[in-house]
Amino acid sequence: MSCFECCIKCLGGVPYASLVATILCFSGVALFCGCGHVALTGTVSILEQHFSTTASDHALLSEVIQLMQYVIYGIASFFFLYGIILLAEGFYTTSAVKELHGEFKTTACGRCISGMFVFLTYVLGVAWLGVFGFSAVPVFMFYNIWSTCEVIKSLQTNMTVPGDQICVDIRQYGIIPWNAVPGKACGPILENICNTNEFYMSYHLFIVACAGAGATVIALLIYMMATTYNYAVLKFKSREDCCTKF
């Protein structure tokens, strides 16, 4: 076998769908975890400085955010290992199905492991749909604040209605109690909040984190198709001549 034919044979055993899903999964999780961690820190800073000056009013929120940051570390570690395992399983299944290393052989244990990956990937896919929806909540909140600031700027430009009458009350979102002081910001104070680096960075980082969660959902959907197809081929290979690049 020539060097070129050997390379073609090796390329034929590459699970391209699993490879693309792994790259997309790593990128999405990295964006979600990295940007989400920094954005949460900025959010706490904004609340402490402008909406809840008493530490006891937002103590529970600070603990929850700190817990979420620890969870982010765990998510990043888990998906790094899980992505490598799924990619390795894709290489193994593709090599077995295409008979790159000898006659096709499969065992009940091998099919059971492939089936376990199918089930676990489906569960993770459903869970990440929830994470994706949850990550859109802070984007919605920051967008409301930003759009209110834009309204204040337009009113100041047109000289129609005083901007002091337009406020944003963070307490209505339920993240701080109703007795928090001041709890809301109006007019020029709100505009100054929107002009701070913490607000600008947190808003855009939450958007990127939401996009990263969406990319992870897409990656898990590709994993679902790949693992399901691999499991079906392993199960029915003995009955029909199938081949896969997944």
Automatic annotation (TrEMBL):
Pfam families xrefs: Myelin_PLP (PF01275)
InterPro entries: Myelin_PLP (IPR001614), Myelin_PLP_CS (IPR018237)
Record has Membrane as a keyword: yes
GO molecular function: structural constituent of myelin sheath
A biological process from GO: central nervous system myelination
A Gene Ontology cellular-component term: membrane raft
SMART domains documented for this protein: PLP
Cell compartment(s), UniProt: Membrane
Family, as annotated: Belongs to the myelin proteolipid protein family.
Membrane topology: Multi-pass membrane protein
Protein name, as recorded: Glycoprotein M6B
Location (main, coarse): membrane
Spans through the membrane: 19-47, 67-92, 113-137, 205-229
Keywords: Membrane, Transmembrane, Transmembrane helix
Sections of the chain in a coiled coil: none
Superkingdom, taxonomy of origin: Eukaryota
